[in-house]
Design brief:
208 residues
Length: 208
């Protein structure tokens, strides 16, 4: 019947049959199953489950922001692994998460993720607006420290090495002990050498 494909994709077919009889869905349970899939690195499974949950009628209003945000985060994980999702799809989900979550404690993180998604979708102006809002409305939030790191990688990927070097160096000076700085260090050393700034490049090489 029609249950087989859904069972294969989501593992929810048995639950669906029961809830169709009761006319109720235990959304919290279904969301927990999707969350576990995400936490265990089964991103395609989590994404399929979250899409299915989002299509059901009667999704509680307090759960909808959680579903959409986790779907956006899962889309981002799939995109980084070049799995059948698009940059535009992930951006759209973060924008939906923003619409649903305004005023929540997650607002700074959503602004940051939106900015990253805008850059991936080659919309730097909108990314700048999102980062500016994050800095303006949440000036003490630690995510602000990562903004030069994100912009540095954006310019590096576009072969804009002078700008990338400035941003990587700004981030490196303030955050040398972080994982992100260690991640940036090889690129920073490269762009400094390309820009013939060999002294600073040698300083960075010590962290690689």
């Amino acid at each position: 019947g029609n249950d087989a494909p859904m069972e294969e994709e989501t593992g929810f077919a048995d639950i669906s049959r029961l809830t169709n009889q009761d006319k109720e869905l235990d959304f919290a349970l279904l969301f927990r199953l999707a969350s576990e899939s995400h936490e265990q690195g089964r991103f395609q499974e989590a994404y399929t489950r979250l899409i299915w949950i989002g299509k059901q009628e009667g999704l509680p209003l307090d759960l909808a922001p959680e579903v959409v945000f986790l779907q956006a985060e899962t889309c981002s994980e799939l995109l980084s692994r070049e799995k059948n999702v698009t940059k535009e799809e992930c951006l759209s989900l973060y924008l939906r998460a923003w619409d649903l979550s305004e005023g929540s404690p997650r607002t700074p993180l959503i602004l940051f993720r939106m900015a990253e998604a805008y850059l991936l979708a080659s919309e730097p102006y909108n990314a700048e607006q999102s980062f500016a809002r994050l800095s303006r409305e949440f000036p003490n939030h630690p995510l602000n420290q990562l903004i030069p790191h994100v912009w540095g990688n954006y310019h590096f990927q576009r072969n804009e090495f002078i700008k990338a070097a400035e941003l990587f160096w700004e981030f490196f000076q303030a955050n040398a002990a972080t994982d992100e700085a260690r991640e940036d260090a090889p690129r920073l050393a490269l762009v400094l050498n390309l820009n013939k700034d060999h002294a600073r490049a040698m300083e960075v090489v010590q962290f690689i």
